[in-house]
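Continuing the batch. This is chain 6 of the set; chains 1 through 5 are on the previous pages. Same settings as before, nothing changed between runs. Recording input and output for traceability.
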Amino acid sequence: MRRLSLLLCLAVVAGCTVRTPVASMRLGPDPAVAGGTFTSPGGVSVAAEVKEIGGKTGICGVWAESENQSVLTKNRAQRVLDPAAVILGNEALLTGLQFLRKVPPARDYGGMEADCVVIERPWRAADAGKRVRINMPPVIIYQDIDLSGGITVRFRPGGPSAHPDDPKPWD
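Output for chain 6:
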């Protein structure tokens, strides 16, 4: 029983490990892009690519948040990046995008300098032709509830939303 408890603890700690970028590369002209808005003002955009780095699979990317965020969401983007995942074809490669480089909001993230991590998965020639997607699930960012009511701020996925010109759900 003690051994099982120790293994479960190690698995939880390993799953929570923040990856440290090992390289920096420019994104190509057409990275995968995702994002969303908060139920208070503001939004987040993420752009990423999957590349071959030293014979292994590398994930490179950037993220941005709106310049006019609500005080309830400012500097809380990690709560959005933590459960986000990069998917290559039908294979989930990595969950937890905290390693991404923060950049100013932009209309296009192609060509930006990005931070990269390498995973243990070997690179395969067929990977170059596979579609890359970024999955960003809904997340509760802030919640304050008392006897007289409350406020809940959520992240709603729906496409890149950090730049003022990005489409918003209320447009």
